[in-house]
Amino acid sequence: MTSYVVGQAIKAGKIKLTDMVTVGRDAWATGNPALRGSSVMFLKPGMQVSVEDLNKGVIIQSGNDASIAIADYVAGSQDAFVSLMNGYAKKMGLTNTTFMTVHGLDAPGQFSTARDMALLTKAMIHDVPEEYAVHKEKEFTFNKIRQPNRNRLLWSSNLNADGVKTGTTAGAGYNLVSSATQGDMRLIAVVLGTKTDRIRFNESEKLLTWGFRFFETVTPIKPDATFVTQRVWFGDSNEAKLGAGEAGSITLPKGQLKNLKASYTLNQPQLTAPLEKGQVVGTIDFKLNDKTIEQRPLIVMESVKEGGFFSRMIDFVLMKLHGWFGSWFS
After folding, report:
1. Are residues 303 and 276 in contact, defined by beta-carbon separation less than 8 angstroms?
2. Does one domain contain both 94 and 1?
3. What chemistry does it catalyse, as a reaction equation (predicted)?
4. What separation in angstroms does the CA of 241 have from each of 3, 214, 271, 328?
């Protein structure tokens, strides 16, 4: 999540990669007991380090000192940065995650799940792709100290892995969130709590290989396609085209596309103008063998402006009649 928050700050123009950061004493591993024995970038108090280098220190070197330094710069303090982390977690729907530190080392009250880590990774890939791209870099040298990326899957000859992140603590064990692509298909694997470094990489490779072998990503609703048209009240048009937009792709077992069913529900009983293109008005449910396997937002494909005074008055009457007598007056 630290990387995601930094990526969003860069994307919003709040910070730049070229900004120079003065390293504080709290980011000095020798002077901060919480960092002793953990992976670091070897920062020293008073150093001037660019945001770009600190970011690479966080991602490639797993530098916990770099996490503190960049958090202080982005938010003013570690506590304020943690608040940003938890704010984004809430927006992403990470209901089983609470962050207490900027670096992820063991702390009372800090927890997460494999599903939440997968959702976070998905959000990073989609929301801040330039930030995510740093995760595939295999090494980084700072202050003449070269360190390889801790994610050994980047060197795998069996997978086209391009991320994501390792994590190791006494309390959580050896963990790895990984992602790889095969053609247009991307998979994310999460392995938590293993006993050794070797096991987390072996199990992650097994998961990704299994996924590519037995699953496929399909697009049952094309990005520019209309999934359904729906009656609109008080608009310059009486119908709205609704679809899935860019979110129409799903992953399912190979050969099961023919059994996939799609239905939808609206957030409100009636659609009323104005409606903006891209506005979410409902949910698309994808079912396989009567079981919901994916849900996607149902969005407006073309804007519907508010109609004129007289057309709105007519719609007001028709809407009342529709409520009383049903579809005769729709």
Report:
1. yes
2. yes
3. Preferential cleavage: (Ac)2-L-Lys-D-Ala-|-D-Ala. Also transpeptidation of peptidyl-alanyl moieties that are N-acyl substituents of D-alanine
4. 37, 35, 11, 22
Token readout for 40 is 């670091």
Q: Distance between CA atoms of 74 and 104, rounded to whole angstroms?
A: 17
Instruction: Judge if 190 and 276 occupy the same domain.
Output: no
As annotated, the binding site includes 165
Q: What is residue 76's predicted lDDT score, i.e. its pLDDT?
A: 97
Instruction: Give 188-197's long-range contacts (Cβ < 8 A, gap of 24+).
Output: 188/118, 188/121, 188/122, 188/164, 190/114, 190/115, 190/117, 190/118, 190/121, 191/114, 192/114, 192/117, 197/168
- Return the CATH number at 104: 3.40.710.10
The whole domain housing 78 covers 1-145
For residue 147, CA distances in Å to 23, 76, 225 come to 20, 28, 47
Which element (helix H / strand E) includes 37?
none
303/271 Cα distance (integer angstroms): 12
Strands (E) across 110-195 are located at 139-142, 145-148, 160-169, 173-182, 185-194
Cis, peptide link before residue 129, omega less than 30° from 0: no
- Residue 316: pLDDT band (50, 70, 90) is low
Region 19-44: mean pLDDT is: 95
User: Does 45 sit behind a cis peptide bond, omega within 30 degrees of 0 on the bond before it?
Assistant: no
Q: Strand 173-182 vs strand 160-169: parallel, antiparallel, or unpaired?
A: antiparallel
Q: Which residues are annotated as a binding site for substrate?
A: 165
DSSP assignment letter at 31: T
Tell me the pLDDT tens digit for each residue of 223-264. Answer: 989 999 999 988 889 899 999 988 778 999 999 999 999 999
65: closest CA among 90, 83, 45? 45
* Domain C-terminal end among 145, 177, 196: 145
Give dist(CA 127, CA 130) in Å, integer: 9
